[in-house]
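Retro notes
What went well: the complex prediction finally ran end to end.
Inputs used:
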Amino acid sequence: MNEVFKALADASRRSLLDRLHARNGQTLNELCEGLEMTRQAVTKHLAILEAANLVTTFRHGREKLHYLNPVPIHQIGERWIRKFERGRLAALGELKRQLEKRDE
Amino acid sequence: MNEVFKALADASRRSLLDRLHARNGQTLNELCEGLEMTRQAVTKHLAILEAANLVTTFRHGREKLHYLNPVPIHQIGERWIRKFERGRLAALGELKRQLEKRDE
DNA sequence: TTGACAAGCAACCATTTGGTTGCCTATTAT
DNA sequence: ATAATAGGCAACCAAATGGTTGCTTGTCAA
């Protein structure tokens, strides 16, 4: 779980996930297109995404195809975000109450 | 949004959010209890959480009370995770298909 | 078969990050 | 008044991060 959070912390990596979400199964060079970064930098980001299991790759000849794995993102939603949804309104209420107390 | 992701990337910070979720409105020293970290380290983490708007503080005399702000976490769920939920089953299907193709 | 293309490896670099220590300020309680 | 308590500030440090350049390997097409 920590690896996933760490992987998602970088905007370049999130945009790579966006690209795969828009079109799945891209090669490294395709994913590099239009980015202000060397291919090697992208390789490193993809390696981090792969280590976090957010991306899975398959070799096809000399090409490497990258596929989005939606499971970890889904888990963050289910296991982590949901927890904070419980008690969300209560927390908002406390916040509001404190703000009003301050302004008296 | 980027600040929020960055803030959530660290396990210590996530555990501080957990603590506030368990009991809202704690002081700095209360939040330090039981942690293997100096008070100053915790201060820095809380500053990052506050900058990301995940925590809001109120001074009460010489104490500083920390309150969870559930809004940014909720937004991550709504704006970011939900996007990947759309097309999630399709992505899982493609992944499975590729895995099977490989094993032929 | 040989050149072009896709990707990998490794060393290096600057900056950011997560932490420390030491000292200072502000508020409260005795 | 003064000691104790809650927190703030700043300098410093090692390690991690995000990026680069240069070179190598593997695969396909002419």
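What we learned: DSSP finds six helices and three strands in chain A.
What to try next: split runs per interface for comparison.
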